[in-house]
């Protein structure tokens, strides 16, 4: 089995895309990856996408989500036809890469970054696929909508700020799960982020330590008291960063801050877990050995969803995948995508695996076979969902 591709029931998958479309796809993908677009800095890649949309014959509209999302620009929406039946969605931003350049190169029939940084296939593989599929769909007179969002990597901020009332489609698809083609995400979690800010009292650590109250000690006690990792089949929790101290060892640290999260496929379980985490953080601060104050900020970044077994977008996706020779597999995930934000705002949306590998890592890659396979699947989806 080729990396990034799902199980195929028999022989090579039929090719829906022509050779010239596959060539255009690879060239456009490499071009988009080479344009830096870490979250909040999407303007350059948005302009390139908008130019491509205009060349296809579509009129991109940019919304006013930039300020709310914390981005340089808003989300882009383009529409073909008056009564589109399906929305295709991808995000323009990537995770940060410390200003390291992205130089896409082909290695062993797959795209990688020649530099020690991400490739940006998350989510520019989907962006390129959507644009190339749209070019043919316009020529064939199909009706559809395309949405390109900003700041997905920081809590789905662009999609959350998007007004779904602008959409005319019955339902939509996000191509944003880095796993083999064929996987259909039917459930995604509710996600909470916690920020705990401890306030102690500074003192000279060698002369008057008893006069100080260590914020770092309180934070350490809090973290040690938290249940972290996989808590059950549907729930996880993690502490991701911690910062504190005054830069020297001779000062009892007055401040310390850490960021934590919990997520669960059960919204009730997520709420119970976040409440338990807040209680344990506050207990640690109030412990007589610490006696510091703490401010805990809790933010629900996105809400989970679960599709019914007979949900129309799930069934249409499975038909498209089978047509392209992939064996559909329904999965649940601990990750979020723009589908969470769109679902929370009342628009039915399904996340599909896109065949990319090791997203957010310096070894990120996507095979040419997977990239071109998703183009075939997208073309099949546009036919399956035609009004």
Describe this structure in words.
- By secondary structure, the protein is of the alpha+beta class.
- It folds into 2 domains: 19-188 and 304-384, 3-Layer(aba) Sandwich (Aminopeptidase), CATH 3.40.630.10; 196-302, 2-Layer Sandwich (Alpha-Beta Plaits).
- The protein has helices at residues 19-33, 43-56, 66-69, 121-139, 157-161, 215-225, 267-286, 312-323, 338-344, 368-384, and strands at residues 61-62, 76-80, 86-91, 104-107, 110-113, 144-149, 171-177, 183-188, 190-199, 229-232, 235-244, 255-264, 293-302, 305-306, 329-332, 349-353, 366-367.
- The radius of gyration is 23 Å and the shape is elongated.
- The mean pLDDT is 94.
Q: Which keywords apply here?
A:
9-stranded mixed beta sheet, 17 strands, Aminopeptidase, 2 domains, elongated, 387 residues, Alpha-Beta Plaits, alpha+beta
């Amino acid at each position: 089995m080729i990396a990034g591709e799902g199980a195929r029931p028999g022989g090579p998958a039929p090719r829906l895309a022509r050779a010239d479309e596959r060539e255009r796809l690879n060239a456009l993908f490499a071009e988009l990856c080479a344009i830096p677009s870490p979250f909040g800095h999407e303007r350059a890649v948005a302009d390139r996408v908008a130019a491509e949309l205009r060349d296809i014959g579509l009129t991109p509209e940019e919304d006013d989500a930039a300020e709310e999302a914390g981005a340089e620009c808003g989300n882009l929406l383009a529409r073909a036809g008056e009564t589109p039946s399906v929305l295709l969605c991808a995000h323009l931003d990537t995770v940060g890469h410390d200003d390291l350049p992205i130089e896409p190169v082909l290695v062993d029939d797959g795209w990688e970054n020649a530099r020690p940084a991400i490739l940006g296939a998350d989510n520019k593989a989907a962006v390129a696929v959507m644009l190339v599929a749209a070019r043919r769909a316009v020529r064939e007179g199909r009706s559809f909508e395309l949405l390109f969002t900003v700041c997905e990597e920081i809590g789905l901020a662009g999609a959350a700020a998007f007004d779904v009332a602008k959409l005319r489609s019955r339902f939509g698809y996000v191509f944003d799960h880095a796993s083999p083609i064929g996987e259909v995400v039917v459930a995604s979690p509710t996600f909470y982020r916690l920020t705990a800010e401890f306030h102690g009292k500074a003192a000279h650590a060698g002369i008057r330590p008893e006069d100080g109250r260590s914020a770092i000690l309180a934070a350490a006690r809090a973290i040690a008291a938290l249940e972290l990792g996989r808590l059950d089949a549907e729930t996880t929790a993690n502490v991701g960063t911690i910062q504190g101290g005054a830069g020297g060892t001779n000062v009892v640290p007055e401040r310390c801050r850490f960021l934590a999260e919990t997520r669960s496929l059960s919204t009730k379980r997520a709420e119970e877990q976040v409440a338990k985490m807040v209680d344990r953080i506050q207990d640690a601060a109030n412990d007589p050995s610490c006696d510091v104050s703490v401010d805990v900020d809790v933010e629900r970044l996105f809400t989970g969803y679960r599709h019914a077994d007979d949900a129309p977008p799930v069934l249409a996706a499975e038909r498209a995948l089978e047509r392209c020779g992939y064996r559909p597999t329904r999965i649940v995930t601990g990750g979020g995508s723009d589908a969470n934000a769109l679902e929370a705002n009342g628009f039915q949306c399904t996340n599909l695996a896109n065949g990319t590998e090791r997203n957010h890592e310096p070894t990120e890659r996507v095979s040419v076979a997977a990239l071109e396979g998703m183009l075939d699947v997208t073309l099949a989806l546009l036919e399956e969902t035609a009004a």
